[in-house]
Design brief:
Length: 463
């Protein structure tokens, strides 16, 4: 069925063109002059197309006057200049075919504002609302921008495994993967006999593609992953998901300075891309969700980022007159209130913190000469705090073995990871960015459940 998308119509405004559009009715109002105004949207853009349906149409009385919000239609007609305010063009219908009816008594979306909490219960219909249609388009544009950025720099896109036998973070909050009948789990010496499972050993859903990305970086130079990751953290907050998407570049022959330079370039590129390519949707979020989102992005694109060490940041926080919920001391993992204070109150710009205590960072981060800190970085932005975490990776075999043991992990489980440090090891670095957190920041939406199509959270696996 050939159709013209409404986004294309409204951008070209070619009056006199005969077209066919298909979409869903947003509203219908009838005139005493013998015609109806029908607002139709097909999801291709925020704006709807106004359709003029005259009473001379053969199905005007028995179908068109019964159209309600949610009905799907196919409309053929001619584009004409619109005399009304708010639109430059409208469609004069020659033919309207109803493809699907929507009962107004049971259709849950009506011409009124619905709470985000309610819309999460109807995730199969919420993409039809202005907010979630805009989120989907911005998510799509950001995905394109991510690939464009890395491809433009010669990175190779890598598909890392979703099922893994290793724990990248050492946190233990992983979903188990098994083919066992859970009512009859085989055991040996009182323990689960994983030797009889599908993979002949414990398997999990991945929390990160980083370790596998390092394999390819140490063969091909620069690679990146962009895919789903999982964490079985029983945290029912507005900032956490059990399934989320991660962007993880990995670069050979790269140190921490190169890593942070790439991270800053990456953020500026994404922000600029959204501002340039999603203007209508960003104006919507700026008007209805957070009146500062456009100004924030424009400022971040133009600003330099501040660079300082974790130790310098802790000193500033310790001497601050601000009363924090969590008191600050060297060796603690900074909270979002601390990160935001540095960005918003001290420097009034994004901040890149480096050289964190080794005890609060993962085993794979390169140990500094002081043996107390690692070459790690966090990129902090106003309103949200940490948005990127990265590090130079430990490339010394013996030091890495000790770090794995210190983390309470078994070096034998990382034999292949260790061998990378025996066969042509080089300095390398990378970072990780939670895609949904970035979408939250760009749109101003407060709850992370509203920036992913089907949120997976504790107690919720619907849709």
């Amino acid at each position: 069925m050939k159709r013209t998308r409404i986004a294309e119509i409204l951008s070209s405004e070619n009056s006199g063109t005969h077209i066919t559009v298909m979409g869903w009715v947003r509203t219908r109002r009838d005139s005493k002059g013998g015609f109806s105004f029908i607002e139709v949207n097909d999801g291709s853009c925020l704006s709807s197309l106004q359709v003029i349906a005259a009473d001379k149409l053969p199905n005007y009385e028995n179908e068109i006057l019964k159209l309600q919000t949610g009905c799907s239609v196919k409309i053929a007609g001619a584009l004409v200049a619109s005399p009304g305010k708010g639109q430059k063009i409208e469609l004069q219908a020659d033919e309207i075919e109803v493809l699907g009816w929507a009962d107004p008594d049971t259709y849950p979306l009506q011409k009124k504002r619905h709470s985000f909490e309610f819309l999460r219960t109807i995730a199969h219909l919420r993409p039809r609302t202005n907010t979630f249609g805009a989120v989907a388009r911005i998510r799509n544009a950001m995905s394109q921008a991510i690939h464009a950025f890395f491809q433009g720099k010669g990175f190779i896109y890598l598909h890392t495994p979703i099922i893994t036998g290793s724990d990248c973070e050492g946190a233990g909050e992983m979903f188990k993967v098994t083919a066992f009948n859970l009512d009859e789990i085989p055991k040996k010496d009182g323990l689960v006999d994983f030797g009889r499972d599908f993979f002949h050993g414990p398997a999990n859903l991945t929390v990160s593609g980083q370790l596998e990305a390092e394999i390819y970086a140490l063969a091909m130079g620069d690679v990146y992953t962009f895919g789903p990751t999982f964490r079985a953290e029983n945290s029912n907050t507005s900032r956490h998901l059990a399934e989320f998407w991660m962007v993880e570049p990995e670069m050979a022959f790269c140190d921490l300075e190169g890593d942070r330079t790439l991270a800053v370039e990456f953020l500026k590129y994404i922000f600029g891309y959204v501002l340039e390519n999603c203007e209508e949707d960003m104006v919507f979020f700026n008007r209805f969700i957070d009146s500062s989102v456009i100004d924030t992005l424009e400022t971040l694109v133009a600003q330099d980022f501040e660079y300082l060490t974790y130790t310098e940041g802790v000193k500033i926080l310790s001497e601050a007159k601000e009363k924090f919920e969590f008191p600050v001391s060297w060796g603690m993992d900074l909270q979002s209130e601390h990160e935001r204070y540095l960005c918003e109150k001290v420097f009034n710009k994004p901040v890149v913190l480096t050289d964190y205590p080794k005890e609060i960072k993962a085993f794979y981060m390169k140990l500094n000469e002081d043996k107390k800190t690692v070459r790690a970085m966090d990129v902090l932005v106003p309103k949200i705090g940490e948005i990127i975490g990265g590090s130079q990776r430990e490339d010394d075999h013996d030091i890495l073995v000790e770090r794995i043991k210190e983390a309470g992990l078994n070096p034998d489980d990382y034999w292949w990871y260790l061998e990378l440090r025996k066969f042509g090891s080089v300095p390398h670095a990378g970072f990780g960015l939670g895609f949904e957190r970035l979408i939250q920041f760009i749109t101003g939406l407060a709850n992370i459940r509203d920036v992913i199509p089907f949120p997976r959270t504790p107690g919720n696996v619907s849709f």
